[in-house]
Amino acid sequence: MRRRNQRLIMIAIAAAVLVAAISLTLVGLRSSVVYFVKPSDLAEKAQAGRRIRLGGLVVEGTLQRTGTVAQFSVTDGATIVQVRYDGLLPDLFREGQGVVAEGTWAPGEAFAAERVLAKHDENYMPREVTEALKQDGEWRGGRPP
Amino acid sequence: MITEIGAFAAALALALSLLQGVLGIAAPRSDANSAVIRVASLAGALLVAIAFAALIVAFVRSDFSLAVVAAHSHTDKPLMYKIAGAWGNHEGSMLLWCLVSALFAAALAWRRGAQDEGLWRRAVGVQGFVTAGALIYTLFLSNPFARLDPAPMQGAGLNPLLQDPALAAHPPMLYLGYVGLSVPFSLALAALIEGRADQNWAKALRPWTLAAWTCLTLGIGLGSYWAYYELGWGGWWFWDPVENASFMPWLAACALVHSAIVTERRGSFAGWTVLLAIIGFGLALLGTFLVRSGVLTSVHAFAVDPRRGIAVLVLLALALGAGFGLYGWRARTLGRASGFAAVSRESMLLWNNYGLAVAAGIVLIGTLYPMLVEAFGGGLISVGPPFFNATVAPLLAALFLVLPFGPMLTWRVGDLAAAARVLWPALAAALVTLVVTLIVSQWRAAPAIGLAIGVWLVVGGLIYLWARLRRGEGGLLRKLALLPLAVWSMSAAHIGAGVLTIGAVGETGFRSERAAALAAGESVEFAGRRVTLLEIGASEGPNYSATRADFRVERGGEVRTVSAERRFYPTAAAPTTEVGILSDLDGDLYLALGEPAERGSAAWIVRLYYNPLVQFIFYGVLLMTLGGALSLLALLRRRGEA
Lengths: 145, 642
Description:
Largest interface: A-B, 43 and 55 residues
Mean pLDDT of chain A: 79
Number of helices of chain B: 20
Distance between the termini of chain A: 72 Å
Oligomer: heterodimer
Radius of gyration of chain A: 22 Å
Helix content of chain B: 55-70%
Number of domains of chain A: 2
């Protein structure tokens, strides 16, 4: 094979790889991105079967356990949403504090969490939660309550 | 007093590194100037070392008049973690960054080797400015020597999650890698200023790149291992933006390790190697920005001061501006290209670089996309594992398909058919793996392909070793002894990549988990094992108290015990999880203890994970690290002979 043809083949393979990579990226960004939603927007933004992140404060006195299943309510000050999670809550999970639950929701049911994230240490709070609370004027600045 | 000496030493080091930079780049060439550059770099490194030692002393003596010590230490902490506390926080870790940069500048200044005088001086000069930039940032925006008045009686303690041996070593290794990439950057800028990137230049570049890559590999591996056994979620890689921040420079460094080989051996790819060195350091700085600026939601994002983020962005803009500007202006002056065929060692290394660069681009897009969407008012989103698994994994799979051919082909023109004739057992092993996994997993294609590719890499690497061995003379022992270090190192790294692939695919594709509420004496069937909670009770550690659960695990006729804990550190508000892990060749049984199932109940929630092949991930990382270290040894030994 002539050197010129060889170079053309290499360029063609490189272009094909690039096109494939770009298409995968675009499709991935459309389908695998997880949106963050606060309880008030849940009904409007949730689609059946699509993963979302729900963030807010755990309502005091709502945590109930039955075997390995934990149920609690999350609020942004306006709306309260029931969350159901089968598994270990993170070490830093507390009533009255910020939490992010990742999972799916359908109207009339509790939010089915597959993962629950709490703040990682006493100075840190999921940023999504801070944003949601700030928007609603619930944020009191500095350390979370 | 020691603190003042530390602060003063750091300030003096800043002046010396600026002097080193100005003399290296702008001053006329003379023996006197070169001597001053050497002395300034060495003195600068010593001074930063004194400053860092002063900070460690402050931590060891629990001097709470220092703001960082008060915020991150405690008198009850074990000595090892007092020392590690010096870099377990933002300010101290930035001083460590400066220390590594200054040490590398001194090493660069004192080990000229075969390098051309002009290139050497420019490189040392650029490295001086890199150190100066880091010192300016540290002293003016995150000063570890800032005082508190009045000093508190007790410190706030180090986050208990971070009191761990793997995590004490994780930041220094990563920093060695990040800052290690500043040396190739300095050499690249020097090449552009001088208008030359020849084979001697590449020879000087390679050990630094390899060292940076090796440290990054081990540093990322340690972080991943820590996350696996400490966080209690059973996972080892979360595609968290902070992990991506270290993965991008790793990909760039991996590409650079390979392209520098071509530049040294064949004189080709010079312009690309220079560009890659600039991009690699740019990604390392971007990583620092992502971690330190607080723009991310993460365990690592401890600095939430917007000025710091902006300052790192300014440093990033300066470095990339200088790099890309010089590149655009001078790239044409760099070395000549020598031709090669579509099937040759060069083309294989080209594909390696192409694949790694595209992978780094995808990770960059996935990491920055949420920030861009938020900045343009598109709401809060997160890009998680599904995105990266769907994009990066197929790309790496394609890259790994061609990898075993690379070492088999000769420079300029390679013989694909001959390579394929040698590699067929690897292909056969991969196909067997594919079919068996498909049947066992009931036709799950993705993990089956992944495992097959891992086997293809491992067997392909072994075949290469065997082919090289057969070429030698004498008995087997003599052949083994005569095999060049470079062959061992490359094989170890490539086989390591295969072992890592097997572990990663096995864990991601076939893990299982369940939660159970267990009282003492109760048991549960899980992953072919019978797990019984023997007893649960209180236990005491040096600076914590714990609830401890002992389990009995029966598998076949074999009985073993393992325990898991929940620890309460009085200095921290929340408990931490200490998981119990039982490792077998086929995978890990991983037990995490939760809270009582219900108020007043004797049952506790236990989460059980079965992580098949997970240990292979860490063995793979170790093999790759070993490969990097051996290769570095080979390069340094060769340099000693020259």
